[in-house]
Amino acid sequence: MVASRAYLERLNQFAAEHSLYVISDEVYEKLLYDGQQHTRFAALPGAKQRTLFVNSFSKTYAMTGWRLGYLAAPAAVINQALKASQFSITNVAPFVQEAAAFALGSTEVDTLVAQMIARYAHRRERILQIYREFGATPIRLVVPQGAFYVFIDIRALGRPSLAVAEQLLDECSVAIVPGSVYGACGEGFLRMTFAASDEDVESGFRAILDWAARQVPVSE
Asked: 41 near 51, Cβ under 8 Å?
């Protein structure tokens, strides 16, 4: 889901009233669909002074294995963060820094990023199409507004998400993340990525639907 500006404005007001910092993780800021707009939290009125802006090169620039990200925050926060980081992160390799700087300033990279997002959008639409065409199924989809995941609602099955994930792995050779790893509110869901080949995404999703169709949902 993509947080609306109105929602973030309410959060900003709440943070101001209670003198709270807001950690704003915006690593998926570029990966949006259906005309969704990203709102940078620190850009809201008065929010910059209490925003800890976290970002990464892993998603937009597909530099996952390079383990590079950054924090922008008020000086008082940065000074404390440096005390913690300097004893665990000694340095980012120079070639990684150069690659990151190039990515941020290259129109060629911007073009490639747009092409990558278009591929994600195509896979997302293909998943939704397969779901619509499949027919009766006890599972439901939360249509993704951003990133490259589908949150699958399996609450009708009446089983823990970890148990369902283990069954899908054992019986269908499909690896999927149980929603329970995201806390109590994630229970009853599965997270499926579409940051894979078109073929793997389609075959994996069809396997999930076929498996779910053979299950007996709990009675409401």
From this structure: yes
The answer to whether the CB of 116 falls within 8 A of the CB of 147 is no
72-95 tens-digit pLDDT:
999 999 999 999 888 887 788 999
Q: What is the mean pLDDT of the chain?
A: 94
CATH fold for the domain made of 5-105:
Aspartate Aminotransferase; domain 2 (3.40.640)
Contacts made by residues 178-185, CB under 8 angstroms, sequence distance 24+? 179/151
Q: What SS3 class is residue 114?
A: helix
Fold of 110-213: Aspartate Aminotransferase, domain 1 (3.90.1150)
**Alpha-carbon span 172 to 206, nearest angstrom:** 10
Query: Does position 38 have pLDDT exceeding 80, yes or no?
Result: yes
